[in-house]
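ok trying again, last paste got cut off:
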Amino acid sequence: MGKSSLPIRGYTTMKDKVYYDESCYVCSLEINTIRKRGEACGIEFVDISSPDFSLGADQYFNTEMIGEFDGCETVGIETFRKLYEKMGFKKSVAFSRLPLVKQVFNMGYYVFAYWLRPHLPKKKRNND
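nice, full thing came through this time. structure:
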């Protein structure tokens, strides 16, 4: 279900980042809903479907959201936890980490990322 909190080699700046797919309707809805608050908390949102996206391709970018928080990489649901924690939702995040609740959230994210999302329609860009 993904790795969490792995050090990123060559990471020099401590700005928090979330890599997401703007061409996915569900992903873009989530990010665009929280973007203003996230940016106010110092989080940069990077659209991996943009033609300008040039970071090396990573296998997780196809299915899971990636984050960089405090110099460590997060993948999948842990990216959401870190994102919401940075935005001040510490109690909600703590709840999502309770033993049984954590497994339910992890499984829900896994089902979405690997079974549902690949079959959802994608947004078309103006230059497509």
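cool. The helical segments are 25-40, 77-86, 90-96, 99-116. Residues 14-119 form one domain.
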